[in-house]
C-alpha cells in the first residue's frame, strides 16, 4: 500500500547576527515575559504565555462558513506571521493563473483551542504572500500580513529571526528544538490544550535511512529532519507551527513544521522523522515582504545580567567536532572549609562573584574558600545573604560571595548566565551538576572530589515538595520563589551519598545551549526531601528559583554600594583615578566612553558621541550629545547605550562593558556648548581596560597659559560624520586666544581652540571627547596620572582654511560636577556617627569580626544589679550610651551596671526614660543609659547604627536577640539567644494579637515579632536589628517592650511588641548625642550675637 503524506513543512531561520526588534519598549523578540508563578500541571501541556509567539490559524472558504482551526503559525513582529503555504493556499498558481487563498483569522496568545480568553488577540489577514515558486512540498512558506498590528503583552510576544543566510546547516545536528500545537492526539482528535515537545535534529543520512521512499526525493540543502521516534512528534493539525531553539538569552525560529508520514490510524507514524525546511535561502524574499508593511520598531533595555552574559559569550570557542571548550561546567564551584573539605556547591556568575545558599554560609562548619578548577582556592572578601532569609527556612535561601581577587576567565572557564522571567525555560532539558566526594559509601573517607551531572530532571507540582508547605505565622513565602524538581537518576543518587546531603546545596540547575556554548542557571539546590522510605523511582529536590530573586542578585553583584563613600576623582583624594601605563594598544585611554543613540524607528544603536568616565557611574560629555537638537529638550534615558573598554566597533570583547543610563544632568545654562553628565543604571567595574580619570581642580597655569601638549580620543565622527571602526587618539595643542581670534573664531570665556602639531593628522574627535593631559610632576615621578581638563565641543575652519578643535574648559564646572557626584544630603548625627563606627569594622574571609558568633554579639549588652542573673538586655549605640526599654530601668531590680562582652562591668551614671512613657499601656517604652566611662571600641566591639525612615526595612529578616531562661536549671540561669526572623506586618500582628490587647497595642510607633522561644516575662529590652554583612554593620530597628501569648490559636503563638527606633529617632539623638546638640545650640547663640548664622 502506497504511503500517504501528511503535510506540515518547517521554516528555518538560522540567525543570530541581527534580531528582529520591537515597537513596544518593554518587550523584545524571543524573550518571554510570562509572569513568574508556581508551575501547575504535569506532562507536556503548556502554561499560559510560555510560547507567546505561537499562533492558531483558522480558515474558511467564504463568509457563509465558520472559521475552523487548520494550522499553527509564528508571530515574528507586530504585523507578520509565518506559516506553511499549504495551510492558507486553496489552489497554488499554475498555468499563469493566480493562487487562490482561504479567508484567514489568527488567534495569538491562545492556550485552550475552544476558549477565547481576554488574553487572546484576534486579527484578520489583509494579505497572504506565498512564495512565488511554491508547489506541494516545495517552497512551502507563506507570510501573513495582519490588517491591524498586535499590541505586545505577556502572552503576545514575537520570536526572533536571524538574517545570517550563510550558516552551516550541520551545526543543528544533535541540537533539540521545540515544537508546539493543538495537533491530533493518538486518538485522532485535536488537542484542546496547547502541547509542546522537544525534537533532536538528525543528519541527512540518518533521515534517508529512516525512509528512503518518503524523504529521498526531497532531501537537499534546504531541508533537515528531526524527531524522537518514540511517539513524541508533530501530528496533523500542527502544520505551519514553528520550531524554536534557545540561544542562551532568547528564542529564535529555526523552522516551520513541514511533513511526515501518516500511518493506518491517520496520525503521524511515531517511528518516522519529521521533515523541516532550511529557510536561510528565503530570507531575502521574507525581508522584501516585510519591507512593504514593516512597522516601526523599538528595543527594550536588557538587564545587566543579560549584558554580562553577552560579554562572557565572547569567550566561547568550539572544537572541530562541535564540542564547546567549556562543556565541563567549570562554573560549578566548590565551597570548602579550612581543612579543604567540601561543604557545599556554588556557581560562578561573574569574575568576582559566586552564588550559593545562605544556609551553607551560616552553617557551623561554614566554608572559607571557593575552589575553582584550574584556578585554585579563592578566599572570600564579602558575604551577602538574601535579606529575607530566616533560620531553618527553604525560602530565599541564596547568598552572594565576593572573592578577594577576580578569577581569570578563559575559553573553558566562563561564568554562567542567569535566567530571568523572560529567558527561563523550564520545559527544556534541565541539567543538574554538583561536586561530590568520590566516596561511594558514607563510611569511606576520600579526599578526591568529582563533578557529576544529570539531565533526568523534571519540574513537578509545588505541592509535592512537602518542606515548602510548613506552618508559619509569617506570610512571607512566595510559592513562585522555589522550584520543585523530580530526579529519576536513581543510580547516581545511590552512588553518591553527597547528593542526598547538605553538601549538594548550592548545586546549579541549568539549561545548556550547544550553539552558544552558554549555560543558564534557573535554580540553586537548597534541599532534598527526606522520606522514611527510600524512594524507589525518584528524588524530590527544592531549588531556589533564580529568576524570582534576580533583582536582588543583580544589585548585589553589579551594583553593590561601597562600604564608605567613594572619594572624589581628584588625585589628592582618589589614588586610583587617572592611573594609566600604556602596555598594549588596546589598553589605550581606559576612561574613553562610546555613547550610542537608539534610532526610534529601527531600534538600532549608533555611535554619535564620546564621553569620559569620571567615577564608577558618571560619564561627562557635551550637552548637545544628550539633547534633541530640534526641540532643545533632554533625550529620554532609554535613548543611550554606553560602551566602556571598547576599542573596535562591532567587535565585543570579554573586557568590554555595556551600561544603560538612569539619569541625565545638563548644566543649568541652556546651551549646547555646556556640559552634561550621564549616570549609569549599574556601576561600571574598574578593570585594566576600564578606569576613571582624575579631574583637575582649580586653574592649571602650566596647561592653559602655555602651548602644553594634550591628547584627545574619538571615533572621528566630527571630521567624517560617521564613526571610524577603531578608537583613535591624537596629540593636540591648546593655542593662545590671540591665535584663535586671528582665525575669526568666536569663543566663549570657557572655550579654547586647539590645533594639531602635525598637519597631516586629521581630527579624531567626537562631540564630547575628553581632553587629557599628564602633569609635569607626573612625568618626573615616572608614573602617569592623567587629568581631564576639557571636553571637545565642535570642529571649526579658520578664515584661512585652518582646522581647529574647540574645547570647553572643565574647571569652571567643577562645583557642579562635584554636586552630582556626591549627591550630598543633610545627614543626621546618627548617620554621621554610623559612618565613624563603620571605619572600625574588619572582616576575614568575609566573616566580620563583630559577627563571629550570633549568640555572642558584643554590642548587645546585659544590664545587672549586684544580684545574680541578667535584668534585661540593651544595645550599645555610642561609646558611653545604651538603648533599652523603660520597663528595664524601672524594674524593681534597677540596673546599676552594664556588662559588655568579656570585659569588666561598667557602672551606670544616668538612666533616662522617654518623657511620654506610660507604665500602664507601655506606650513609648524606650530608654537611654549613660555609662560612667566610655568603653574601648575595636573591630570586635562596634556600636550599632540607628534605623531612620530611609534605612528601616521591616520586610527583611532581622536578628532578634531575646533573654532566654533555662527552665530546667534550678538557678533560673538566663542568657541571650539570637535568631533570624521576620518582623510582623500589620495584618500578621493583627491576626495573632489577642483581641483584648488590640485596642491598646500596635500603634504606628510599634511593630510585633512572633517568636517561638520568646519568654513573655523577659522580653523587655530585647533587640531587633538588621545586619549588613558587606559593611559589617548592625542597625537597631526596634527595642522590645511587652509580650503575651494567644491561647485561642493553635499552636499558641508568643507575640512581642517592639518600639520602632526610627519613630523615636529625634528624641534618641538628643539624649545620646546631647553634647553635640548642646554645642549646636551654643553656636546658634553665638551666631545670633553677631547678627548672622553659619548653619
Amino acid at each position: 500500500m502506497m504511503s500517504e503524506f501528511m503535510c506540515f513543512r518547517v521554516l528555518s531561520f538560522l540567525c543570530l547576527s541581527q534580531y528582529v526588534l520591537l515597537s513596544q519598549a518593554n518587550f523584545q523578540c524571543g524573550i518571554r515575559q510570562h509572569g513568574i508563578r508556581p508551575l501547575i500541571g504535569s506532562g507536556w501541556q503548556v502554561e499560559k504565555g510560555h510560547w507567546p509567539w505561537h499562533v492558531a490559524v483558522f480558515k474558511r472558504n467564504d463568509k457563509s462558513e465558520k472559521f475552523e482551526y487548520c494550522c499553527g503559525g509564528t508571530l515574528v513582529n507586530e504585523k507578520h506571521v509565518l506559516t506553511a503555504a499549504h495551510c492558507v493556499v486553496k489552489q497554488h498558481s499554475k498555468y499563469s493563473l493566480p493562487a487562490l487563498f482561504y479567508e484567514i483569522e489568527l488567534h495569538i496568545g491562545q492556550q485552550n483551542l475552544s476558549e477565547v480568553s481576554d488574553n487572546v488577540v484576534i486579527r484578520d489577514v489583509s494579505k497572504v504572500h506565498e512564495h512565488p515558486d511554491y508547489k506541494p512540498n516545495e517552497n512551502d512558506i507563506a507570510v501573513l500580513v495582519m490588517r491591524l498590528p498586535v499590541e505586545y503583552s505577556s502572552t503576545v510576544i514575537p520570536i526572533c529571526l536571524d538574517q545570517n543566510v550563510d550558516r552551516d546547516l550541520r551545526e543543528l545536528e544533535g541540537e533539540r528544538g521545540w515544537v508546539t500545537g493543538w495537533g491530533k492526539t493518538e486518538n485522532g482528535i485535536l488537542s484542546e490544550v496547547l502541547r509542546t515537545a522537544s525534537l533532536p535534529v538528525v543528519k541527512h543520512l540518518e533521515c534517508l535511512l529512516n525512509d528512503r521512499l518518503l524523504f529521498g526525493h526531497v532531501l537537499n540543502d534546504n531541508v533537515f529532519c528531526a524527531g524522537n521516534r518514540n511517539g513524541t512528534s508533530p501530528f496533523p493539525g500542527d502544520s505551519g507551527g514553528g520550531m524554536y531553539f534557545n540561544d542562551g538569552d532568547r528564542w529564535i525560529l529555526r523552522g516551520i513544521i513541514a511533513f511526515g508520514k501518516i500511518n493506518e490510524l491517520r496520525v503521524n507514524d511515531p517511528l518516522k522523522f519529521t521533515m523541516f525546511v532550511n529557510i536561510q535561502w528565503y530570507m531575502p524574499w521574507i525581508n522584501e515582504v516585510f519591507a512593504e508593511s514593516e512597522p516601526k520598531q523599538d528595543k527594550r533595555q536588557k538587564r545587566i545580567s543579560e549584558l554580562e552574559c553577552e560579554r562572557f559569550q565572547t569567550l566561547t570557542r568550539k572544537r572541530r567536532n562541535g564540542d564547546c571548550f567549556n562543556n565541563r561546567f567549570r562554573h560549578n564551584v566548590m565551597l570548602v572549609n579550612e581543612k579543604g573539605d567540601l561543604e557545599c556547591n556554588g556557581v560562578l556568575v561573574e569574575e568576582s562573584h559566586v552564588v550559593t545558599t545562605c544556609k551553607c554560609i551560616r552553617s557551623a562548619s561554614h566554608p572559607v574558600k571557593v575552589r575553582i578548577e584550574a584556578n585554585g582556592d579563592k578566599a572570600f572578601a564579602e558575604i551577602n545573604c538574601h535579606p529575607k532569609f530566616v533560620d531553618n527556612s527553604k525560602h530565599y535561601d541564596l547568598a552572594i560571595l565576593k572573592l578577594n581577587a577576580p578569577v581569570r576567565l578563559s575559553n573553558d572557564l566562563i561564568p554562567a548566565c542567569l535566567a530571568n522571567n523572560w529567558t527561563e525555560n523550564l520545559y527544556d532539558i534541565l541539567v543538574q551538576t554538583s561536586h561530590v566526594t568520590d566516596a561511594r559509601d558514607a563510611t569511606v573517607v576520600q579526599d578526591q572530589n568529582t563533578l557529576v551531572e544529570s539531565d533526568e530532571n523534571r519540574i513537578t507540582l509545588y505541592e509535592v515538595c512537602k518542606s515548602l508547605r510548613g506552618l508559619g505565622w509569617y506570610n512571607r513565602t512566595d510559592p513562585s520563589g522555589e522550584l520543585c524538581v523530580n530526579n529519576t537518576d536513581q543510580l547516581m543518587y545511590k552512588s553518591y551519598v553527597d547528593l542526598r546531603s547538605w553538601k549538594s546545596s548550592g548545586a546549579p540547575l541549568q539549561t545548556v545551549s550547544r550553539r552558544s556554548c552558554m549555560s543558564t542557571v534557573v535554580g540553586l539546590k537548597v534541599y532534598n526531601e527526606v522520606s522514611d522510605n527510600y524512594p524507589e523511582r525518584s528524588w524530590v529536590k527544592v531549588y531556589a528559583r533564580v529568576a524570582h530573586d534576580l533583582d536582588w542578585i543583580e544589585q548585589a553583584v553589579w551594583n553593590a554600594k561601597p562600604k564608605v563613600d567613594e572619594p572624589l576623582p581628584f588625585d589628592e583624594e582618589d589614588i586610583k583615578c587617572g592611573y594609566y601605563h600604556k602596555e598594549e594598544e588596546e589598553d589605550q585611554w581606559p576612561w574613553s566612553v562610546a555613547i550610542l543613540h537608539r534610532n526610534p524607528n529601527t531600534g538600532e544603536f549608533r555611535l554619535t558621541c564620546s564621553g569620559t568616565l569620571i567615577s564608577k557611574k558618571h560619564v561627562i560629555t557635551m550637552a548637545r550629545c544628550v539633547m534633541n537638537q530640534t526641540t532643545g529638550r533632554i533625550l529620554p534615558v532609554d535613548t543611550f547605550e554606553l560602551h566602556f573598554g571598547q576599542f573596535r566597533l562591532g567587535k565585543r570583547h570579554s573586557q568590554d562593558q555595556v551600561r544603560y543610563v538612569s539619569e541625565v544632568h545638563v548644566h543649568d545654562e541652556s546651551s549646547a556648548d555646556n556640559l552634561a553628565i550621564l549616570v549609569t543604571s549599574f556601576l561600571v567595574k574598574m578593570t585594566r581596560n576600564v578606569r576613571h580619570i582624575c579631574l583637575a581642580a582649580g586653574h592649571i597655569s602650566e596647561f592653559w597659559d602655555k602651548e602644553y601638549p594634550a591628547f584627545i580620543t574619538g571615533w572621528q565622527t566630527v571630521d567624517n560624520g560617521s564613526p571610524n571602526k577603531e578608537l583613535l587618539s591624537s596629540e593636540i595643542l591648546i593655542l593662545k586666544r590671540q591665535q584663535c581670534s586671528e582665525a575669526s573664531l568666536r569663543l566663549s570665556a570657557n572655550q579654547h581652540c586647539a590645533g594639531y602639531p602635525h598637519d597631516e593628522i586629521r581630527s579624531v574627535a567626537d562631540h564630547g571627547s575628553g581632553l587629557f593631559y599628564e602633569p609635569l610632576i607626573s612625568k618626573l615621578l615616572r608614573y602617569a596620572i592623567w587629568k581631564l581638563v576639557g571636553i571637545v565641543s565642535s570642529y571649526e575652519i579658520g578664515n584661512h582654511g585652518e582646522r581647529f578643535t574647540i574645547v570647553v574648559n572643565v574647571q569652571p564646572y567643577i562645583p557642579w560636577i562635584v554636586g552630582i557626584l556626591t549627591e550630598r544630603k543633610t545627614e543626621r548625627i546618627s548617620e554621621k556617627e554610623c559612618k565613624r563606627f563603620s571605619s572600625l569594622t574588619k572582616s576575614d574571609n568575609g566573616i566580620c569580626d563583630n559577627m563571629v558568633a550570633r549568640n555572642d554579639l558584643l554590642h548587645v549588652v546585659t544590664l545587672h544589679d549586684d544580684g545574680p542573673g541578667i535584668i534585661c538586655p540593651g544595645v550599645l549605640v555610642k561609646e558611653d550610651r545604651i538603648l533599652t526599654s523603660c520597663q528595664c530601668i524601672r524594674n524593681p531590680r534597677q540596673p546599676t551596671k552594664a556588662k559588655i562582652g568579656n570585659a569588666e562591668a561598667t557602672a551606670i551614671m544616668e538612666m533616662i526614660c522617654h518623657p511620654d512613657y506610660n507604665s500602664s499601656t507601655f506606650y513609648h517604652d524606650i530608654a537611654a543609659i549613660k555609662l560612667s566611662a566610655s568603653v574601648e571600641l575595636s573591630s570586635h566591639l562596634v556600636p550599632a547604627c540607628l534605623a531612620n525612615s530611609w534605612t528601616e526595612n521591616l520586610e527583611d529578616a532581622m536578628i532578634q536577640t531575646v533573654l532566654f531562661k533555662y527552665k530546667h536549671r534550678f538557678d533560673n540561669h538566663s542568657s541571650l539567644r539570637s535568631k533570624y526572623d521576620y518582623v510582623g506586618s500589620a495584618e500578621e500582628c493583627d491576626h495573632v494579637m489577642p483581641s483584648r490587647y488590640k485596642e491598646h497595642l500596635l500603634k504606628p510607633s510599634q511593630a510585633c515579632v512572633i517568636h517561638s522561644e520568646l519568654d513573655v516575662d523577659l522580653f523587655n529590652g530585647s533587640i531587633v536589628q538588621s545586619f549588613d554583612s558587606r559593611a559589617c554593620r548592625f542597625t537597631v530597628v526596634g527595642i522590645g517592650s511587652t509580650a503575651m501569648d494567644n491561647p485561642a490559636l493553635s499552636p499558641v503563638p508568643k507575640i512581642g511588641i517592639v518600639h520602632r527606633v526610627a519613630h523615636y529617632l529625634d528624641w534618641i539623638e538628643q539624649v545620646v548625642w546631647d553634647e553635640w546638640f548642646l554645642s549646636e545650640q551654643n553656636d546658634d547663640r553665638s551666631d545670633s550675637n553677631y547678627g548672622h548664622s553659619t548653619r
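Residues 91 and 100 are 5 Å apart (CA to CA). The mean pLDDT is 82.
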